User: Fold this.
Amino acid sequence: MNILIVGGGGREYVIAAKLRENPRVKRIYAAPGNGGMAAFCTLVPLKATDIEGICRFAKENSIDYAVVAQDDPLCLGMVDALKEIGVESFGPTKAAAQIEGSKVFAKKLMKKYGIPTAACECFDSYASALEYVKTAPVPIVVKADGLALGKGVIICESREEAAEALKTIILDKKFGASGESVVIEEFLTGPEVSVLAFTDGKTVVPMVSSMDHKRALDGDRGLNTGGMGTIAPNPFYTKEVAERAMKEIFVPTIEAMNAEGRPFKGCLYFGLMITKDGPKVIEYNCRFGDPEAQVVLPLMKSDLLTVMLATTNGTLDRTPVEFFSGAACCVIIASGGYPVSYGKGYKIYGIEEAEKTALVCHAGTKEDENGDIVTSGGRVLGVVARAETLSNAVDAAYAAADKITFKDAFMRRDIGARALKLLEG
Ligand code: AMP
Ligand code: GLY
Assistant:
């Protein structure tokens, strides 16, 4: 089979690495891919959002199956466009991707179908939103409606901060059209867990749980990022919580999307907070998390391509999805200045050394004209280790990450610390 992966980060790297394990896979193309994927994929110099270009490429290169891994092409309707030219894909349609593409849509869905989430109000004018926050309880959370690279969420300690957040999102348009509407919601507390689930629109199969570390700096300080590291499984996600989440959140969400005429196929990401009243939805994503995929997929025992095809064909109920029993840790090495501004083009040293004991998922890398791997993004590499225990996985991921250097590189030093503290009591 010829497979096309749409995207070019660490998530796409690990998806490609996992798909390669299936002998039926003849060739993997990646649009646009990254410097590390070039070692085992054919890079296609097209933007992940270039629907027309990617459809043309798929047709001309006999693509048998596409994996649309990134949020923006999904929300723009890449899966629908590929289907129109006869190419099946892993991922939801444009209508179903709205579950991530519009927080207003997601919140209204949860309200309508009684799915546990933070209480909220939605607004599409500055004046009405401002009026609301004047008497709202604080802390309060203000979210831009649309996609904003994980940055459109502002946690406000005071009403003044909330008013400022509304100005930033609605009037100053810091997140562009994403901020034409806002969600203002109740501030929840509790440990967070990411649960990625395969679904064919009928059956939902949760994968091993994980924990992201979203803030840039140790101790959960600094700005929100796309994610600075992950561990799996997440020890806060007990069997009891998992059972409640399945019954109260996962199954009702799949049913709600069907009832709305937007059946969801692909990977549905449940960002949950485990509150004292049980698990509640913080966000939905219409795709694998990044860097959640970098710990979840290496723990997957079943063949990824078989499971992906089952989500597309509607045969997930007959397809085993199994995971290894151990743990995994991914440490992101980022460019100094991320998530705001950072330099690019710095030569990276030590990848081969790190690869002796870990999986190095390239994200923001490219091959320069001399054939050297250089930095080209904020999150540069994800160093992943698997072990029988979480403690060993964390140690192994850091030992390997420490072999890698480039100018202004930085990483968090406490990935997994909160989980280990819980496990060690
Ligand atoms: P999101 O992009 O919606 O996942 O939000 C980013 C981060 O903001 C989440 O991972 C949480 O840590 C935090 N957050 C979002 N919504 C809430 C909420 N209602 N209460 C507390 N924290 C929240
Ligand atoms: N790591 C969070 C996300 O993929 O949205």
